[in-house]
Amino acid sequence: MTETLQHTNRLIHEKSPYLLQHAHNPVDWFPWGEEAFAKARAEDKLVLVSIGYATCHWCHVMERESFEDEALARYLNEHFVAIKVDREERPDVDKIYMDSLQAMGQQGGWPLNMFTTPDGRPVTGGTYFPPAEQYGRPGFRQVLEIIADAWRGKREDVFRNAEVLTEHLQRHAGLSSQSGVQWGHAPIEAAADQYRQHYDRKHGGFTLQPQNKFPPSMGLLLLLRHHARTGDGQALEMVEQTLKAMVAGGIYDQLGGGLSRYSTDHQWLVPHFEKMLYDNALFARTLVETHLVTGKAFYRAYAEDVLDYVLRDMTSPEGAFYSAEDADSEGEEGRFYVWTPEEVRALLGPQEAAAALAWWDVRPGGNFEHGRSILHMPRPLAAVAAELGIDEDTLGERLQRAREVLFTAREQRVRPLRDDKVLTSWNALMISAMARAGAAFGEPRYVDAAVRAGTFLRERLKDSDGRLLRRFREGEARFKAYLVDHAALACACLDLYEATFDAAWFDEARHLMGEVNRLFRNEQGPYYDTGSDGEALIARNMEGYDGVEPSGNSSAAQAFLRLHAYGVRDGCLEDALRIFAGFQPFLERAGVSFSAMLAALDLHLGPPLELAIVGDPAAADTRALLEVAQRRYLPGAVLAVAAPGAVAELGERIPLLEARQAIGGRATAYVCRDMACQLPVHTPDELEAQLHEA
Fold it and tell me: What pLDDT, in 10s, does the model give residues 475-503?
């Protein structure tokens, strides 16, 4: 038995893969809950709240160096009560302590280690601490000793610091909406200018961080909308060059498909190798929409490559989507993905090996650690073909064979850990991507995958009262879902409706947004992140920042506006406008951090296009009209379909369909804005003309 397995703590009873990773540490970990804080109060100890997630590289490093160290663990157990939190299960807890860290002037990140009073108020903290002083950071044992000494001898200072931080959190948690705000496109124009100023003309993407580059999918989606409205060619150029650079870079898995979390350089070469579901969902959606804008098969091919990776490696037998894949394998970051020339030559024939080595830049000495190479595509196909003295078609055929052989061989390696928990909001993003791709490409398999996942969430991620939950793993659904879960899933349900025209998904979207108003509503401002029935923490936040995924308020605004466009008139427009008004200063000054919310504002300013088609969905004339609508880039549109005999019943649920007719027994399309419609049309050419004019 290994040393780590000599110990078992309370985390062994949890379902989170991250918490289970720490279940055999000598640290006496508690999961988040009253038991831990009660112990801290009873024993008069400070609390260490340590937050991370299962595929976090530096979380693994700190575990190996510090939390598995017997002597350090003894000291920690003697002087503190230690709590482990999976940030993906409890984003509300993570948000409070991350805001605390940033209020101290520190850069955020994970692992997040926050020391708190016995009642949970933050005192001080940091991210990764090495075991001994290095990298300009104090050693973790040194940190523990300083804080323990302060608790014994300077307790008044500790409480004073906790009071100041808590007041700061509570003061900044609430936002109120100004009345009478008049909206125009100026915030969107300002954000487009900010993207333009930070655009990397050589490598694509945006230099918003000094060293790293993160996938800017929400920004690219906003730029596509800006281009569609204004005809700004540079906006489209920024989107296209960025996508091409990313799929050619090491940040993209050249053999298996899928995108890594971020690049550690500005060239997209060396990734932080973990793969997150939300990144791939947003990236796939961006590729789908860029295909619709440009008509280029290139973007469709890569969208399918990403989605096929998810269906192959990130989908449960029941159809739900897993959360992430780790960066590490066999204790090394990236080991699963990198190659030497000798490994490539051993698997391929001379012609395929020469093609693979040249195309993916696998060279002697490598471009990564230990002489190994990250696969990337630094040169055009034509240049590599010319170097090898063959035509491009021949090179393409050899590369396709090489990719298949290398992928098969790589599957025999030790895989990175897969975080197989199912998170509601992340699944919602992938459902939207699958549904949109299936509709745009005419690919039923993606629609079917979206329906399976949506059905799983609808049936398995609810409690006995029908309340939506956040996380599912190993048969257990747990944690009351947050605003982001409800709102993202409502958007996904509307995407499912527009891909299947099964009105049950529309009904589910309306129900979810009703729950948003029941559980998260704030009459004076945007929506709260946590429900009125949730755990009372030291602050109740209202988030608008679009970080790794659209914020709950951004998705809520999008869902409310789409429902309003369908004719739902029970305050949806007013609710969306209250969100915008609450974040007005941020939208005007820092739009690049609120790109998803600005995309919702763009939808409002459109105003949305309303398209209703009445006809047998299985009939050729109806399908021809649908193809026109679904294969066209219409970011500010909603689409409803009904068979003639179902209009009366569906019109009561989806007002856009009310009183529509299939005129003359032919499939009929109605193109409207704000319920004012053009003349009904019957042919694809007529519909194309109306959509072009709209």
Answer: 999 999 999 999 999 999 999 999 999 99
Alpha helices in 524-683 (DSSP H): 552-565, 572-582, 584-589, 595-605, 620-630, 647-653
Which CATH number applies to 609-693: 1.20.120, 3.40.30, 1.10.287, 1.20.58? Answer: 3.40.30
Question: Which H/E stretch holds residue 425?
Answer: helix 424-441
Is the CA virtual torsion 52, 255, 263, 283 positive or negative? negative
Q: Looking at the predicted structure, is the pLDDT value of residue 108 above 90? A: no
Strand, coil or helix: 199: strand
607: preceding bond cis by omega (within 30 degrees): yes
Helix/strand/coil for 95: helix
The two domains 186-329+419-605 and 609-693 share their CATH topology (first three levels equal): no
Neighbouring C-beta atoms of residue 10, cutoff 10 Å: 17
Of 3.40.190.10, 3.40.50.450, 3.90.180.10, 3.40.30.10, the CATH number of 3-173 is: 3.40.30.10
The third-level CATH classification (topology) of the domain covering 337-412 is: Arc Repressor Mutant, subunit A (1.10.10)
Residue 50 and residue 85 in contact, taking contact as beta carbons nearer than 8 Å: yes
Which residues have C-beta within 8 Å of that of residue 252, sequence separation ≥ 6? 246, 258, 259, 260, 268, 376
Q: What SS3 state is found at 125?
A: strand
CA dist., res. 392 & res. 88, Å (int) = 45
Least confident of 384-398, 650-664, 667-681: 667-681
Bridge partners, residue 472, by sequence: 422, 477
Q: Give the start-to-end residue ranges of the domains of the chain.
A: 3-173, 186-329+419-605, 337-412, 609-693
What is residue 417's three-state secondary structure? coil
- Tell me the C-alpha to C-alpha distance, in Å, between residue 447 and each of 276, 310, 618: 21, 14, 16
Compute the C-alpha angle 682/683/685, nearest 5°. Answer: 140
Q: Does residue 170 register a pLDDT over 50? A: yes
- Between CA 399 and CA 126 the distance in angstroms is 46
CB contact set of 513 (below 8 Å; sequence gap of 6+): 486, 487, 490, 556, 559, 560, 563, 572
